[in-house]
Amino acid sequence: GAVRAPDGPTDAAISLPGAGAVTLADRAQRARLQRAPAWREFTARHGSWTALWNERTASPHRAFGPAIPLPGFTDDPSGVESALRAFIAGRQDLFGAPTLETGRVQKVRGTWYVSFHQTVRGMTLLFTDWEFRVGSNGNLFSFGADAHRGIEKH
Predict the structure, then answer these.
(1) The model's pTM
(2) Which one-letter DSSP state was computed for residue 24?
(3) How many Å from the N-terminal Cα to the C-terminal Cα in the chain?
(4) Which residues contact 39 (CB under 8 A, 6 or more apart)?
(5) Contact 140, 30 (CB under 8 A)
(6) What is the pLDDT of residues 41-88, one digit of tens each?
């Protein structure tokens, strides 16, 4: 699955230059991103999903669409987290290969709310927003991933 950050808290966090509040892509950039091979493959595989794109990261800040059954899902915190990590890892063209630290895994009224924080060399990358919504039946119906790709190499 997606790489798991080391267990235990760290005191360090980093921010990329220009990072902060999300700016959504304008119409022209949105059109380019929706035509990109990664998104076209995603929608061909999973149906007509809609995305609000993060201008800086060129990743889906929020996306929603037809339910996607998550293989390996079990209706408990470790089961939903594991299924989501596998989902992320299986779509590197869309998400990259991030190291993710679990922020929360919480079930409220039949919906799992799962958030992750992207880390680099053990430090939390500020202003990364990885959010997933999964039904108690194991179907993913919404996500957001401000995926900063390729920064682990720097």
Answers:
(1) 0.83
(2) B
(3) 23
(4) 33, 51, 60, 94
(5) no
(6) 999 999 999 999 999 889 999 999 999 999 999 999 999 999 999 999
